[in-house]
Amino acid sequence: MTYDIVFVVASALAIISALGVILSGNPFHSALALIGNLVALAALYLLLQSDFLAAAQVIVYAGAVMIMFLFVIAYLGGRATEPVRARPWWQTLAALAAAVAVVVEVGFAIEEQAFGDGASVSEAFGAPQAIAASFLGRYVLTFEATSVLLLIAAVGGVTLAAHRPAPREEGAVSAFEIERPAPEVSLQAEVVDALTRFDVVRAGQVRDEDGET
Fold it and tell me: Is residue 104, in this structure, part of any structural domain at all?
């Protein structure tokens, strides 16, 4: 019973946080949602009795990697959400075609999958020896390519921060600003301001009826 509850909660958190990553317009909020997604995946690893993999997920990805992401976002500051410039029509068309292709591929994969009993997981799943054999053996090129990709992302963030940003539209709010409504002046404050306001006249100057010296 406890297993089912933890699985449902972790799965729901993983889905909600993943949607928060791609739907949030604020990069800082997206990074926080990604941390929640990684923690949810770590909980799923714990359900598979892979304590080492869950700890590595939290320490390496939710910890070190996300700290790097947050550092780059903080380094960019308000420039992380610069106004979107006009893009060519073919880029929009290519993005829509790619999205449709991904949806069709996912639907085809679900249609062809025979959902039955869950896969059997051996006791060696998630063990340090098995992870080391995968990372440094069969998937060593993929592992190193991912490391280089993260490095390129960090260097790209610093490079973007070094350039002068485009002028921001009037009234636009940056990533780390909160849009606060303008305070409304009450009638009592207007009356008090009118009663306590007085003109300062310097020595040697005389104001006429129109207020001119």
Answer: no
Reduce the secondary structure of the chain to three states and give it as a string: CHHHHHHHHHHHHHHHHHHHHHHCCCHHHHHHHHHHHHHHHHHHHHHCCCHHHHHHHHHHHHHHHHHHHHHHHHHHHHHHHCCCCCCCHHHHHHHHHHHHHHHHHHHHHHHHCCCCCCCCCCCCCCCHHHHHHHHHHHCHHHHHHHHHHHHHHHHHHHHHHHCCCCCCCCCCCCCCCCCCCCCCCCHHHHHHHHHHCCCCCCCCCCCCCCCCC
Give the mean pLDDT per block of 10 residues along the chain (213 residues): 85 92 84 90 86 85 81 67 66 90 88 69 72 82 86 76 56 53 66 66 54 53
Domain extent, residue 44, equals 1-80+126-163
For residue 14, give the CATH number of its domain.
1.20.120.1200
The total of structural domains in the chain comes to 1
pTM beyond cutoff 0.70 = no
